[in-house]
Amino acid sequence: MVGNFLNTFCNGLRVLLGVLIGALAIPVGMQVIARYTGIIPVYLWTEELATFIFVWVVMIGAMLAVWDNTHFDVRVLPDAKNPVLKLIQDAFVYVMILIFALVFAFYGIEYAEFGAIQKSVMMRMPLIITYISVPIAGVVWTILVVYKISNAVAECRAALAAQKVSQ
Questions:
Q1: pLDDT given at position 49
Q2: How far apart are CA 48 and CA 42, in angstroms?
Q3: Which of 39-48, 85-94, 136-145 is predicted with the least confidence, judged by mean pLDDT?
Q4: How far apart are CA 109 and CA 99, in angstroms?
């Protein structure tokens, strides 16, 4: 049930990521047209908007990478055949992700508070719009990796039980 909810949540993040990448094309396209053709004037706010969107694209992409196991996991050793050793390998990676997630969540709050008192130069928008992505990413990473740890433990138990039955 939790897995289905998190999968649905991550699918929603994928849709949001696609929308943001599509939205990113607008200010970047305006910048390119303005700089190289002169058809439209150079609008400096487009650079700020592109930066705001890009920060969120990166953070949402990192959230999805944790869910899909496509980011923070570099295998130096081949996957273990023994369920306990496999659990240790996976748990090491997940604990490292969890440490970074908790750092982002904890220190990201202070970082977001710093952004709350600032405004962007051209658009005069509060910078918390981008700064808040750091603690949000930390919280989402924490939730996803705790679920992944619980799944890894359950898979290990199931594999050990299956080995015990086959003996």
A1: 93
A2: 13
A3: 39-48
A4: 16
Phi first, then psi, for residue 126 (nearest 5°) are -65, 135
Taking Cα atoms as reference points, which of 70, 67, 41 lies closest to residue 141?
67
Average pLDDT over the chain, rounded to an integer: 91
- What is the distance between the alpha carbons of residues 68 and 78, in angstroms, rounded to a whole number? 19
Closest by alpha carbon to 97, among 149, 54, 134, 58?
149
For residue 111, give both structure tokens: 């970082």
Whole-model pTM? 0.87
SS3 string of the chain?
Answer: CHHHHHHHHHHHHHHHHHHHHHHHHHHHHHHHHHHHCCCCCCCCHHHHHHHHHHHHHHHHHHHHHHHHCCCCCCCCCCCCCCHHHHHHHHHHHHHHHHHHHHHHHHHHHHHHHHHHCCECCCCCCECHHHHCHHHHHHHHHHHHHHHHHHHHHHHHHHHHHHHHHHC
Sign of CA dihedral 154, 155, 156, 157: positive
Question: What pLDDT score was predicted for residue 114?
Answer: 93
